[in-house]
Specification:
The structure holds two protein chains of two kinds.
Chain A: H1 11-31, H2 36-51, E1 58-63, E2 74-80, E3 83-88, E4 91-96, E5 99-103, E6 114-119, E7 126-130, E8 133-138, E9 141-145, E10 157-163, E11 166-171, E12 174-179, E13 185-188, E14 200-205, E15 209-214, E16 218-223, E17 229-232, E18 254-260, E19 263-268, E20 271-275, E21 280-283, E22 295-300, E23 306-310, E24 313-317, E25 322-327, E26 334-339, E27 345-348, E28 359-365, E29 368-373, E30 376-382
Antiparallel strand pairs in A: 1-30, 2-3, 3-4, 4-5, 6-7, 7-8, 8-9, 10-11, 11-12, 12-13, 14-15, 15-16, 16-17, 18-19, 19-20, 20-21, 22-23, 23-24, 24-25, 25-26, 26-27, 28-29, 29-30
Helix pairs in contact in A: 1-2
Chain B: H1 3-22, H2 24-27, E1 43-48, E2 54-59, E3 64-69, E4 75-80, E5 85-90, E6 96-101, E7 106-111, E8 116-122, E9 127-132, E10 138-143, E11 148-153, E12 159-164, E13 169-174, E14 180-185, E15 204-211, E16 216-224, E17 229-234, E18 241-248, E19 263-271, E20 275-281, E21 292-297, E22 303-308, E23 313-318, H3 319-328, E24 344-349, E25 354-359, E26 365-370, E27 375-380, E28 385-391, H4 400-409, H5 421-424, E29 434-435, E30 447-448, H6 470-474, H7 476-483, H8 490-502, H9 519-529, H10 545-548, E31 559-561, E32 573-575, H11 597-602, H12 618-628
Antiparallel strand pairs in B: 1-2, 2-3, 3-4, 5-6, 6-7, 7-8, 9-10, 10-11, 11-12, 13-14, 14-15, 15-16, 17-18, 18-19, 19-20, 21-22, 22-23, 23-24, 25-26, 26-27, 27-28, 29-30, 31-32
Helix pairs in contact in B: 4-8, 9-12
Classes of the chains: A mainly beta, B alpha+beta.
């Protein structure tokens, strides 16, 4: 079976590493003139840098209730140009011109707890999935759709994705599609799809494919052209064991899906998966750079790169190497860990980290990242320009 | 007879002759002929070419743009467009005229040199206002039914996207600097959160502000308490904007017309000259500005002109005095019938149902389209008097239906001219509001206003079905409880009924062109017609959708109790309403307590009295609603 995601580093990407190695070797020669202690320390540092691949570094600035966020529990984050939207446990907050504004149920928001966010890039409208329905925020006006006042199948909206004139929604009672031209609601459940459970947890829509992550029922795929639904499951069906690695979805409890460049990235609470339409590759903590198998969200950047939001930190995979950003689980000190393609792990000295290790969501603002955590929202300001994290 | 008396008589006769020439409808008696070919022009909007040489007149009923010489008003050409055109505008360079055709969902592009339609583009549902951006790259079209503003490629007509606007999105204006587009809407937005009192909340409207370059909504200016918002105009310096609107007083019993208790007709001004938006009344005791529609601001910013379709006049506002008043009275003055005396400087009587208006480049003439007179009033802005009235070519007699339509739109019959039928039935449709009518008792039997199109032969009328026919509905009931003033004579009432009965339903936008149903609609139709529920139990005839809502219009015309009676209702017995274009007319139920079709069954049908529906799954209910939208 073709193995993906662990390919060797291309030559053009190796060159900077070779150059860096040569420079460091020269520096090592110079260091001989220095004191023994300094030389030893430098050698250790140089050795570490010599093997650590160049991975993006960030300076994290964290937002909490102390500086304007309505709640520290941030379920989702969305970048909309210069505006940052944060779906929290106590309202939808938007950061603009260095100030936070919060929309609540009093403004028309369907529920205070905002679980998911999506941007209609054409119109600028923001769609918010909440514990009490789906809200559209358009030019400051909020319209809310519920299972009572609209065709929405259920008020608990875990996921939302906008593609063209369609809003795709993942709810606790199946998937939905709202056609913005006709206002027709279409529901997807066990009656018209191969959905085993109707607890849909995530959705990723593109012009060609729509993927639903289903809690306990794998991944559903809709081919937009044919209208055909397919289902992808964990081939071993085991909750705890992985008997058939890289032969299918890693687990049935799918928490997040991300379809980009014809590649499906799927997150579960028991590891993650990448699917290219023919071959699967599974990521587990034990044999990848994932800090944990418990993944709340995955967001693919392209066919090879993705970000993983886990309960033990934020992980970035560049197709070969991994980087993990988190406050230490032991003492809370900022940590950045790099794991290269050979499995060698290096600690990078950093002074900041995301607000909490329990990561729930991520979005991108140029080379910066915004990270939703269980205890605040973090703005990761890119410190080096090498290795773009966006397409 | 002395010389001067003779001369005076001759001048008088000449004047009458001139009046007869230019104002045929004003002096000729009504001819109540039925069945004649009613090819009226019904001018709705007027525009001048950038050089001021040509006058374009959008004629809604004859479905054409008439091009007149702006100096002589001689006809240059009549250009046929699509069905029921509603809005038009020139491209910034003046080379193209865009016309929206509201009933066939197309947009006609007219070459203003060749005076020919060069393209007809398919657009959204019921296109109304249209405006092109300064660069000629994007065309913005307000779609009344879908409540949005479509963004089109201005060269190809290909739709790029739709921006959410207000409900009944209809009128667009480009700001003088070209950076913003201001969109208004004729029906109030649907209430947000469910509180249990949605049907008794003040209406909310908005001006949707669109960034013309990015084609995204950047702001929504709230218009509290307003329902029925029409044209926006700007001063040439862009510092003052003005919009005409209705401010209904539908939360109190409609029993105090003598105290101005039905509507305030207002102007909301905004922009740098004003600060925050301010709503001011145009009304004055005995001189209401019923059904304001078109707005124009003089180039020197001295005056604002507002056409008032129901009052059949143009209201003239002195801008300087208005600004002084606003700054001196920062509070709300909408209910103050003395307020307009501070800034309204003239009320100029024009023709029947004046709508669109435009100023000549020198600002000396104001041209007003009198829709139900087929005429253009030319107002001398220095004297604020009608200098002349231009009769458009066409039928010169007034038919039964035409007279009925004039009666429908005028506010002449109501106490102090406050309201006409069209105040609540905007463009002969509905208003999206609930009202408390006096006959049922104060605070009793709140009723939702219904669509008029297609009501022919669906008697009895009223929600309770207590009016046996349209003359009863429109006659004694209206005269006594609404107008509180002048009765219709028999001919007028009869003609009004003819007009109301003539209102055909607009095309249903949810039906496929070939008349077929989508799979979801087919499934919904089966539910609508079913006689057995999902548990194989027979559904009693009276509890089937298709029994009460039978026939082509979806009404059996019979009385039922569907369990929707509220404590404030006098009765729970209601006539099954017709279903024609039901998708357009939220809110629903007799008192407007259901904000959406879904809520009829998800909230207000706990005991299955309003049809057997509680056995349905959510997707089946969605199918039923998809079918209902096709009715």
């Amino acid at each position: 079976m073709k193995k993906v995601g662990v390919a060797t580093i291309p030559d053009e990407e190796r060159q900077p590493q070779i150059l860096r190695l040569r420079l460091l070797q020269r520096a090592q020669q110079t260091s001989l003139r220095m004191t023994l202690v300094v030389g030893v320390l430098l050698a250790i540092t140089q050795a570490a840098l010599a093997v650590a691949p160049e991975m993006p570094r960030f300076r994290f600035e964290n937002f909490t209730t102390a500086n304007g966020l309505p709640d520290n529990h941030v379920f989702a984050v969305l970048v909309d140009g210069d505006r940052i939207w944060a779906g929290t446990d106590n309202g939808l907050a938007v950061y603009e011109n260095h100030a936070w504004k919060t929309y609540t149920t009093g403004d028309g928001l369907a529920h205070r707890a905002v679980l998911s966010l999506a941007l209609d890039k054409r119109t600028g409208d923001v769609w918010a999935g909440t514990m009490g329905g789906l809200s559209r925020i358009s030019g400051g006006r909020i319209d809310s759709f519920t299972q009572l006042n609209s065709g929405l199948s259920n008020d608990v909206v875990y996921g939302v994705s906008v593609e063209g004139e369609n809003v795709w929604i993942a709810t606790a009672a199946g998937g939905c599609r709202l056609d913005l031209h006709t206002n027709e609601w279409s529901l997807y459940n066990e009656r018209n799809t191969p959905m085993g459970e109707i607890w849909t947890y995530a959705v990723s829509a593109t012009p060609t494919k729509v993927y639903y992550g289903v809690w306990g029922s794998g991944v559903l795929e809709l081919d937009r052209k044919t209208g055909r639904w397919d289902r992808y499951d964990d081939p071993d069906g085991e909750n705890e064991l992985v008997l058939f690695k890289d032969q299918g979805l890693i687990h049935e409890i799918v928490t997040s899906v991300s379809y980009v460049d014809n590649i499906l990235w799927a997150a579960t609470y028991f590891g993650d998966s990448r699917y290219d339409g023919r071959y699967w590759h599974n990521f587990l903590k034990k044999d990848s750079g994932l800090p944990s198998n418990f993944t709340n969200q995955v967001k693919g950047i392209d066919a090879n790169r993705a970000w993983f939001c886990t309960d033990k930190g934020l992980a970035y995979f560049d197709g070969a190497n991994w980087a993990v950003y988190t406050p230490s689980l032991e003492d809370g000190k900022p940590q950045m860990t790099v794991r290269d393609s050979d499995g060698k792990v290096t600690q990078v000295v950093v002074s900041t980290a995301p607000a909490h290790n329990y990561i729930l969501g991520i979005d991108f603002q140029g080379e910066d990242i915004w990270v939703a955590t269980a205890k605040g929202l973090s703005h990761g300001i890119r410190q080096t320009t090498k290795g773009a994290i966006q397409k | 007879m002395n010389y001067f008396l003779k001369a005076g008589m001759m001048v008088g006769l000449a004047g009458l002759a001139a009046l007869a020439l230019f104002c045929p409808a004003m002096i000729r008696p009504v001819r109540a002929n039925a069945g004649e070919d009613e090819n009226y022009a019904s001018p709705l909007e007027v525009l001048l070419s950038p050089d001021g040489a040509r006058l374009f007149v959008l004629c809604q009923q004859s479905e054409e743009v008439r091009v007149l010489d702006a100096a002589t008003y001689a006809v240059i050409k009549n250009i046929a467009v699509g069905r029921v055109p509603r809005g038009f505008s020139l491209s910034p360079d003046g080379k193209r005229l865009f016309v929206t055709n509201s009933w066939d969902d197309t947009l006609s592009v007219i070459d203003t040199s060749a005076l020919e339609v060069t393209a007809t583009w398919t657009v959204g549902a019921e296109p109304s206002g249209v405006v092109e951006d300064r660069d000629g790259k994007k065309l913005f079209v307000a779609n009344r039914i879908s409540g949005d503003v479509a963004v089109l490629d201005a060269q190809t007509g290909v739709e790029e996207k739709r921006l959410l606007a207000g409900r009944g999105s209809s009128y667009l204006t480009l700001s003088p600097d070209g950076s913003r587009i201001y969109a208004t809407h004729v029906y109030p937005n649907v209430t947000g959160r469910r509180t249990g009192f949605e049907n008794r909340m003040a209406p909310e409207s908005e001006i949707t502000v669109i960034d013309a370059a990015r084609a995204v909504v950047v702001d929504r200016m709230p218009l509290h308490g307003m329902a029925g918002v029409f044209h926006v105009a700007f001063s040439s310096d862009g510092r003052l904007g003005a919009v005409a609107a209705y401010h209904p007083k539908n939360l109190v019993p409609l029993a105090h017309l003598e105290h101005g208790g039905a509507f305030a007709y207002t102007l909301t001004v905004f922009g740098a000259d004003v600060g925050r938006p301010v709503e001011v009344p145009l009304d004055e005791l005995e001189r209401y500005a019923s059904q304001p529609f078109g707005v124009a601001i003089a180039a020197d910013k001295s005056h604002i002109y507002v056409t008032c379709g129901g009052s059949e006049m143009v209201t003239v506002v002195d801008v300087r005095r208005l600004l002084v008043y606003i700054h001196a009275h920062p509070g709300i003055s909408v209910q103050d019938l003395a307020a307009s005396g501070n800034y309204v400087v003239a009320r100029i009587a024009v023709g029947k149902n004046p709508r669109g208006l435009t100023l000549t480049r020198d600002g000396r003439r104001l041209l007003v389209a009198n829709r139900l007179d087929d005429s253009i009033s030319v107002i001398d802005t220095r004297t604020n008097r009608v200098a002349s009235t231009i009769a458009l070519a066409g039928l010169k007699t007034v038919s039964v239906k035409r007279h009925g339509e004039q009666t429908f739109y005028t506010s002449h019959y109501s106490f102090q001219g406050q309201i006409g039928c069209a105040s609540c039935h905007i463009d002969s449709t509905f208003d999206g509001l609930t009202w408390n009518l006096e006959p049922d008792g104060f605070g009793r039997s709140i009723v939702d206003n219904k669509l008029l199109e297609g009501i022919k032969d669906t008697e009895p009328y009223k929600w309770t079905g207590t009016n046996p026919n349209i003359p009863t509905e429109c006659g004694p009931r209206t005269e006594k409880y609404f107008w509180r003033s002048e009765n219709y004579d028999g001919v007028t009432l009869s003609n009004l009924a003819v007009y109301v009965r003539s209102l055909e339903p607009r095309p249903n936008r949810w039906r496929l062109i070939d008349g077929e149903l989508t799979p979801a609609q087919e499934r919904g139709k089966a539910i609508f017609e079913r006689a057995v529920d999902k548990f194989k139990k027979p559904i009693p005839e009276y509890n089937r959708c298709s029994y009460c809502h039978s026939g082509p219009k979806g009404t059996s015309q019979k009385i039922f109790d569907v369990g929707t009676r509220k404590p404030s209702d006098n009765t729970g017995l209601l006539k099954a309403p017709m279903l024609t274009n039901i998708a357009l007319t939220a809110p629903y139920l007799h008192d407007g307590s259901a904000r959406s079709l879904e809520e009829i069954w998800t909230i207000f049908n706990p005991d299955d009295k309003h049809g057997r529906t509680n056995d349905l799954t959510k997707d089946e209910l969605n199918d039923l609603i998809e079918y209902l939208r096709t009715r």
